[in-house]
Specification:
Keywords: S-adenosyl-L-methionine. This is SAM-dependent chlorinase/fluorinase. It holds the Pfam family SAM_HAT_C. This protein has two domains: 162 residues, 3-Layer(aba) Sandwich (Rossmann fold), CATH 3.40.50; 100 residues, Beta Barrel (Elongation Factor Tu (Ef-tu), domain 3). Helix content is 19%, strand content 28%. The chain has six helices and 14 strands. Strands 7, 8, 9, 10, 11, 12, 13 and 14 form an eight-stranded antiparallel β-sheet that branches. A six-stranded mixed β-sheet has the order 2-1-3-5-4-6. A hairpin with a 2-residue loop joins strand 4 and strand 5.
């Protein structure tokens, strides 16, 4: 993900106190009691800590979507402990880790979920495997580490536990990372990919507004968009409402990335663009 400056200043992880914040991002949904159970565990350990729910509607097992949401939200979250639980490998061989970055601690599976947010926070300073079962909730369910491992560890860190007490240190270069979405300028065009699709069907690209500016493109222009063998023209505007309902539009989203949308519609469905799909954008001819 494009890096972003972290707001709120930095402080040493050892000084995290009961006035700190814990954030939660999961694919648990809102129809069951899973999220409430995580809140309850944290409240039982660190009752004065504020808990912020980032998102619990990440598509099931979609590590990439979870990584994108966390990375693009982290600049606006207070310094604290950030829990990610999009974990299709729960109960398997994957490690559970705590990663220090930019005065924050990220807790979750070592499956790449945390990697873009860690990078957006300035990069990993240290990492620890969550192996000291003394700090877990018992008995530990092999399929619910969010409740039994990640939530209690987060609460104990805010209550004064040192990250170094969680388990052995993991070399940061051995942490699992997701490939960074990229954009490439060549041949009078910029090539990229769909980073994620939000709940409205908007398709966010790895292509930035700066990439289009480098091609001489500004809002008000028309883009030439190539999707495999398909080619179409699309207006480049500031908002969805700049085009009539039902019409396609390209715009720079709140992360500074180009997104395709349909005013009052679903661009991902209209265009058949899943995450990872390749896109080429050029001036319209």
């Amino acid at each position: 993900m494009p890096s972003a400056a972290v707001h709120g200043g930095l402080r040493d992880v050892q000084s995290l106190s009961v006035t700190s914040v814990i954030t939660l991002l999961t694919d648990y949904g809102l129809e069951d009691g899973y999220v409430a159970a995580c809140h309850g565990v944290i409240a039982g350990i660190a009752p004065d800590v504020r808990v912020i729910d980032v998102c619990h509607l990440v598509p099931s097992g979609d590590v990439r979507r979870g990584a994108a949401i966390l990375a693009q939200t982290i600049p606006y979250l207070p310094v604290g402990v950030h829990v990610g639980a999009v974990d299709p490998g729960a109960g398997g061989a994957r490690r559970a880790v705590a990663v220090e970055a930019g005065g924050r601690v990220f807790i979750g599976p070592d499956n790449g979920l945390l990697s873009w947010a860690v990078r957006a926070s300035g990069g990993a300073r240290a990492a620890y495997e969550l192996s000291n079962a003394e700090h877990f909730l018992h008995p530990v369910s092999p399929t619910f580490h969010g409740r039994d491992v990640f939530a209690p560890v987060a609460g104990r860190l805010c209550a004064g536990l040192s990250a170094g007490e969680l388990g052995p240190e993991v070399p940061v270069e051995r942490l699992v990372t997701l490939p960074e979405p990229t954009s490439v300028l060549r041949g009078g065009a910029v090539e990229g990919e769909v980073v994620s699709v939000d709940g409205y069907g908007n398709t966010q690209l790895s292509i930035s507004a700066g990439d289009l500016a480098a091609l001489g493109l500004r809002t008000g222009d028309t883009l030439g968009v190539s999707l495999g063998r398909r080619r179409l023209s699309m207006p480049y505007r500031e908002t969805y409402a700049a085009v009539p309902p039902g019409e396609l539009v390209a715009f720079a989203d709140s992360a500074g990335l180009i997104a395709f949308a349909v005013n009052c519609g679903d661009a991902a469905q209209r265009l058949g663009l899943p995450p990872g799909a390749r896109v080429r954008v050029s001036p319209s001819v």
